[in-house]
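TA notes, week 10

Several of you asked for a full example with nothing omitted. So below is the full record: structure tokens for the whole chain, then the designed sequence directly under it. When grading your own attempts, check the secondary structure regions first.
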């Protein structure tokens, strides 16, 4: 009898359980031919939020490429843009800090508010040049940072020279990629890669 009641209670309580977390996704929204990159539900399952609360900042590295469609042979690479976003938890203030590579910093009281901020589409000025049909490809790499990586990235966002980039540091996998400095590869910590392709857009004459 007790077992039957326990099963019944479990079934009834299941109706009140929240829906399964949405999987993270990446999309490219075209408005008047201008791309806006949007990531959705990145913090929905709580995994990255837990890591941030445990002292591991989150790094989002975006790379948006523009390609020209060709009827024969392979599509032609045209240009690209790359940018970084870093989020971390501040235990003293009990809030979340969001830093972008354009120099802006914002604070959010809850992980839900941070998640909504990350979902705001990011406009990129990367327009086709010349006639033809074009499309955009975007790749997002999400990884975690340690304290040293965060300090290096904050210095870079402020325009200071990074010891790892200049060759005097020992960050390990710090790389130079044009003006962007890739500062993270932490073995054993969760990583996520998302990709998206836009609809085609016509270039100018």
């Amino acid at each position: 009898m007790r077992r039957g009641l326990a099963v019944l209670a479990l079934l009834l309580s299941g109706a009140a359980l929240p829906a399964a977390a949405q999987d993270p996704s990446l999309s490219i929204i075209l408005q008047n031919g201008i791309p806006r990159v949007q990531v959705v539900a990145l913090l929905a399952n709580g995994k990255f939020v837990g890591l941030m609360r445990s002292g591991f900042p989150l790094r989002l590295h975006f790379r948006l490429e523009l390609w020209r469609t060709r009827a024969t042979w392979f599509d032609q690479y045209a240009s690209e843009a790359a940018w970084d976003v870093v989020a971390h938890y501040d235990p003293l203030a009990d809030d979340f800090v969001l830093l972008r590579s354009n120099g802006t910093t914002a604070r959010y009281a809850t992980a839900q508010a941070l998640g909504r901020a990350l979902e705001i589409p990011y406009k990129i000025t990367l327009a086709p040049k010349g006639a033809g049909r074009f499309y955009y490809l975007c790749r997002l790499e999400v990884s975690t940072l340690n304290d040293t990586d965060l300090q290096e990235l904050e210095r870079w966002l402020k325009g200071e020279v990074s010891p790892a980039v200049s060759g005097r540091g020992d960050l390990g996998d710090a790389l130079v990629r044009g003006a962007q400095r890739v500062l993270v590869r932490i073995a054993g910590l969760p990583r996520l890669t998302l990709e998206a392709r836009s609809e085609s857009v016509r270039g100018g004459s």
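The longest strand covers residues 76-90. Use that as a sanity check on your answer.
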